[in-house]
Amino acid sequence: MLIINVKDNESIDRALKRYKKKFERTGTMRQLRARTAFVKPSIKRRHEVLNAIYKQKTYGHLED
Fold first, then answer.
1. Concatenated DSSP letters for 22-50?
2. Ranges of each domain in the chain
3. Pfam families under this entry (predicted)?
4. What distance in Å separates the CA atoms of residue 39 and residue 26, rounded to the nearest whole number?
């Protein structure tokens, strides 16, 4: 559970903004979406490799 302490002169908008930022940093939504369907470890690894290949093709020329 996230706890946000609202300071004395702090507006609700500012506190809500801090809450949203803290919520995003914890990765809760990302984790919930990942848990909706099981992905085999081999498939997960394949996606990582394909993503790495894509990044090498896209950004590889910057290293020269």
1. HHHHHTHHHHHHHHTS---HHHHHHHHHH
2. 12-63
3. Ribosomal_S21
4. 22
Rounded distance between C-alpha atoms, residue 17 and residue 48, angstroms: 33
pLDDT in tens, the chain (64 residues): 889 899 899 999 999 999 999 999 999 999 999 999 999 999 999 999 999 999 999 988 776 5
Treating both helix axes as pointing N-terminal to C-terminal, what angle do 28-35 and 12-26 enclose, rounded to 10 degrees? 40
Separation CA 42–CA 48 (nearest Å): 10
Per the listing, tokens 């809500």 go with 16
